[in-house]
Design goal:
about 350 residues; alpha+beta; Hypothetical protein af1432; 15 helices; about 50% helix
Length: about 350
């Protein structure tokens, strides 16, 4: 980024005048400092808060490379649309026992790709966190997050489409489990937990019994709870026998489950989730996939409003490549480097 000294008053005025036009635009190139630190990552949809951030830090407008998007294209609305669609598809599968794959590919998959095309971290999380309809939102959430990971890993278009389908259908086996168990507010009994774990095998059977679906989709339904160290289920297989798509979906599945409100628990604090993801990259989850995921998700959070664990509110200013879960925060004009404040963390994103 060019020297971020004070810009001319006319430029500041221009920024304020054009704020309405900037909001809703897609940043098509990373906004970076002279040292290469990403301030706002590529593909971010600019909010008014981003514009205010740009104004406060006197960033010249000519550094922004933008693409205008339709005003009604928001992650929340897209995720709501996909959730309603998958609800109907799950109802169909309960009645028929097979997947209406043509409907999935013609309606849900394009919607998920659209949501993954214009992501901001807050909009992704806020659209996916409601505890109502968790089973349906979880499938959509894992679909969106897996698609983002696939993009970051530079999968081909064909593989990305297959991954999105597999991720969106990863939990179809739950149609064979009673809603009373799925939505139970308390702890499962041993018998109930054993039944819940069978959803992976049920999903594999359902997909294999549906003509026209690639076998890799069935394997993701079967393997998304397997772990690199062999301590997953249903078969306890190790890293060399788990498919690459299953490894990606496992990362998305863990993240969405931890950041979601459930009938029996609140969402985990943001810093705990991200630190747990990094911890799981040592043995449980694929290390490269997991580390790419954490780094890119944190880059997506730049500019987001947060509440810290001491109650203060601030905004994520920059992410440090070597320690992405401890970014720098601007809180009431105080610069806080979380790498140097070991007892202070991000509790939650608020906008």
């Amino acid at each position: 980024m060019r020297a971020a000294g004070k810009i001319e008053a006319s430029m500041a005025g221009e920024l304020r005048m054009n704020a309405t036009n900037l909001v809703g635009s897609k940043l098509i190139k990373d906004l970076v400092t002279e040292n290469g630190v990403v301030l706002i990552p590529c593909n971010t949809i600019l909010t008014r808060e981003h514009v205010e951030f740009i104004d406060r830090h006197h960033i010249p407008l000519d550094l922004l490379e933008l693409e205008r998007l339709p005003r009604d294209m928001t992650n929340e609305s897209l995720i709501f649309k996909a959730t309603e669609e998958i609800r109907e598809i799950f109802h169909y599968m309960r009645r028929r026992g097979t997947v209406p794959i043509e409907e999935v590919q013609s309606s849900i998959i394009p919607t998920i790709h659209q949501a993954a095309e214009y992501p901001t971290l807050y909009s992704v999380l806020s659209g996916l966190q409601a505890k109502d309809d968790y089973t349906y939102r979880h499938n959509i959430g894992v679909g969106v997050i897996s698609t983002l990971i696939g993009k970051w890993l530079k999968l081909s278009e064909a593989d990305l489409g297959l991954l999105t389908t597999a991720a969106t259908l990863h939990d179809v086996g739950k149609i064979r489990i009673d809603d009373d168990i799925l939505n139970k507010p308390g702890k499962y009994t041993d018998e109930e937990y054993s039944l819940m774990k069978r959803h992976a095998e049920f999903g594999y059977e359902i997909i294999c019994n549906t003509p026209g679906i690639d076998h890799q989709v069935a394997l993701v339904a079967l393997q998304h709870h397997e772990r690199e160290d062999g301590k997953g289920y249903p078969y306890g297989i190790t890293e060399n026998r788990i498919t690459y798509f299953s490894k990606i979906v496992a990362v998305a599945d863990v993240f969405h489950a931890m950041t979601s409100k459930r009938v029996y628990k609140e969402a985990s604090p943001f810093y705990q989730v991200m630190q747990q993801m990094l911890s799981d990259s040592f043995g449980r989850l694929h290390p490269v996939i997991c580390n790419v995921f954490v780094q890119r998700m944190m880059e997506m959070s730049v500019g987001s409003e947060v509440t810290l664990t001491d109650g203060r509110k601030g905004r994520i200013l920059m992410v440090h490549p070597g320690d992405p879960v401890n970014p720098s925060i601007l809180a009431a004009d105080e610069y806080i480097d979380l790498r140097k404040n070991h007892h202070l963390h991000i509790d939650r994103l608020t906008r």
